[in-house]
């Protein structure tokens, strides 16, 4: 039998945590034959609710779930971690400036990065979900100098999935016929969902749509503002779809992209496509054997260039701000 994989989830008592843990435990994160140990990391106020969730996990009698540990100590929570899902974060509250938001999250992601550095397994893979996800991932990565930088990733898979769904609805195509969609940049309102290289049943998606006004005025803003639309409709932010995207992100990273397709991940830039090295930006990537590679050689037209640059500019500003705050 296989050795269990240690999966740490922070913010385990939150709404994404509740939608996420049961799918990890039922084998959707890593595969149907991979046993898991869960480590739930919460702040002290969240421990009791996390214990309640753990009771329900027990009650599912999941064959793959070996044990559950609940803690508010990051060193314990990340001990031996092979996969870490950093979901718990400090949300922006009314009147909060960007600097306040970044420093509040720095207070979470810097110590967690250090705890990962000091305690996680050598093959640790980190996905940051908690917002601002890209810059939180940068903060954690900077605090973990002994871990290869490329192990720190940020989630843009929800944006990727949202874009596929919008494109499928518009064109009447099946979701499974849509390939090679890309989210570029930041997981924020400046993100750029790019269909110029996407395919719908083998045909170029931009040509199938053939409507630049729809792209600029409907598709891109609908995808970028979907989070706000969900809050408006549901009275709470995306949770099950965010958890689903986190599952997809890690599953694809570990198990690989399909031939002829790619996915979107926020990853440390190597300078590709003019994105400054080091910032954590979303790119088109293929994955294989637990490693990802940026898809190279795509032609970036003017429409795309302007939008990628705008999102990357926001990321460099966030990086400069956390640098000034001494967080990286
Ligand atoms: P929530 O407020 O329901 O849960 C957050 C949980 O994190 C709480 O239980 C809280 O006690 C815990 N927490 C706070 N600080 C912590 C720390 N230092 N260590 C461990 N746990 C800590 O929030 P929800 O809805 O689960 O969302 C979590 C984060 O995910 C938010 O930042 C949200 O903006 C982000 N998000 C990101 C998406 C993406 O696409 N990247 C999509 C949707 C949400």
UniProtKB/TrEMBL annotation:
Catalytic activity: (S)-malate + NAD(+) = oxaloacetate + NADH + H(+)
Keyword NAD in record: yes
An MF annotation (GO) of this entry: L-malate dehydrogenase (NAD+) activity
CDD domains: MDH_chloroplast-like
PROSITE patterns, per the entry: MDH
Binding site for NAD(+): 11-17, 105, 112, 129-131
Active-site residues, as the UniProt record annotates them: 187 (proton acceptor)
Domain Lactate/malate dehydrogenase C-terminal as annotated: residue spans: 156-322
EC number: 1.1.1.37
Residues that, per the record, bind substrate: 92, 98, 131, 162
Keywords recorded for this protein, A-Z: NAD, Oxidoreductase, Tricarboxylic acid cycle
Keyword NAD: yes
NCBIfam families (UniProt xref): MalateDH-SF1 (TIGR01759), PRK05442.1 (NF003916)
Family statement: Belongs to the LDH/MDH superfamily. MDH type 2 family.
Name the record gives this protein: Malate dehydrogenase
Species the sequence originates in: Streptomyces mutomycini
Gene: mdh
């Amino acid at each position: 039998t296989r050795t269990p994989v240690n999966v740490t989830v922070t913010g385990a008592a939150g709404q994404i945590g509740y939608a996420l843990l049961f799918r990890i435990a039922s084998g959707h994160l890593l595969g149907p034959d991979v046993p898991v140990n869960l480590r739930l990391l919460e702040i002290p106020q969240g421990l009791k609710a996390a214990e309640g969730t753990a009771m329900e996990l027990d009650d599912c009698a999941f064959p793959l779930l070996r044990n559950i540990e609940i803690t508010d100590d990051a060193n314990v929570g990340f001990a031996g971690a092979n996969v870490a899902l950093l979901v718990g974060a400090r949300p922006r509250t009314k009147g909060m400036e960007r600097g306040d938001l970044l420093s509040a999250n720095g207070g979470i992601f810097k110590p967690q990065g250090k705890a990962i550095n000091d305690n996680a397994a050598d093959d640790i893979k980190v996905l940051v979900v908690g917002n601002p996800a890209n810059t939180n991932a940068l903060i954690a990565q900077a605090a973990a100098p002994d871990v290869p930088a490329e192990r720190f990733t940020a989630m843009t898979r929800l944006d990727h999935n949202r874009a596929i769904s919008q494109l499928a609805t518009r064109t009447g195509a099946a979701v499974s016929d849509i390939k090679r969609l890309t989210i570029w940049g930041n997981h924020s309102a400046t993100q750029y969902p790019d269909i110029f290289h996407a395919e719908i049943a083998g045909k170029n998606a931009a040509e199938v749509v053939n409507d630049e006004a729809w792209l600029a005025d409907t598709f891109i803003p609908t995808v970028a503002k979907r989070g706000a639309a969900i809050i408006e409709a549901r009275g709470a932010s995306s949770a099950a779809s965010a958890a689903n995207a986190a599952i997809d992100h890690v599953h694809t990273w570990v198990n690989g992209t399909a031939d002829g397709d790619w996915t979107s991940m926020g990853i440390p830039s190597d300078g590709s496509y003019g994105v400054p090295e080091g910032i954590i930006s979303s790119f088109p990537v293929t994955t294989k054997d637990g490693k990802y590679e940026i898809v190279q050689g795509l032609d970036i037209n003017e429409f795309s260039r302007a939008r990628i640059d705008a999102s990357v500019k926001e990321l460099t500003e966030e990086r400069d701000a956390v640098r000034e705050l001494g967080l990286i």
